[in-house]
Amino acid sequence: MSQFPFQRLQTELAVIISHTPPGERLPSEPVLSRQLGVSRATLREAMRAFETQGLIRRRQGAGTFVVGQVPILESGLEVLESLETLAKRQNKSIAVRYLHIDEILADRETAEALNVPLGTPLTRVQRVILTDNRPAAYLIDILPQDVLRPGDLPERFGGSVLDYLLQRGDALTISRADISATNATTEVARAMEIQRDDVLLKFTSRLYSASGRIVDYSHSYFLPGYFHFHIVRKVGGA
Description:
By secondary structure, this protein is of the alpha+beta class. It has helices at 3-18, 29-36, 40-52, 83-89, 108-114, 161-168, 186-192; strands at residues 56-59, 63-66, 73-76, 94-105, 121-131, 134-144, 172-183, 199-209, 214-222, 227-230. The strands form three sheets. It has a six-stranded antiparallel beta sheet with strand order 4-5-6-9-8-7. Strands 1-2 form a two-stranded antiparallel sheet. Strand 8 and strand 9 (214-222) form a beta hairpin. Helix 2 crosses helix 3. The termini are far apart.
């Protein structure tokens, strides 16, 4: 499909979405593809732009729903802050769903990331962060058990391992994050109520203590339409 017809398809989809009340389901893919005169593969490609904006949400086995106005969390990347802290500062609310805390043994990836021997007992904290009662992020933190044991987190855990460590008095200094676009795995898609292979923004981070030790290895998956990240940089040579 050439660029112009594809743009026209997105324009027609935008009209359909704008005329569908938030919370209502769009026509099924077979119906929409026949209505718009395109293949289902082309239709899915066109719909991804609206998914990344947070305007629609596909739910496995249920269909595609119009979301409506999305509460966006905005953050600079110069300073590490939790989603809970960001939400409070911006007068937005977040919640935690599907919190799962367990013990795992370090495999090759986590052993290298945390600089611990293979088979070292680790604590893994997995959860979905909701904004406006919609899944917006999926977070996984992996820590050595001398830093965090499975039973350490409080009963009313707000979702941020970082905040817990800071409130406990841990001396933390920097976090190094690799940022990339990725496709949702089956596990992540199920937790976030999206389709497998949907595009997400991924942060893979290592959190350092004042002694230079890596105390937290984390994977954070964000739905692009719910977050606006930016960074302020100085001009070289100025």
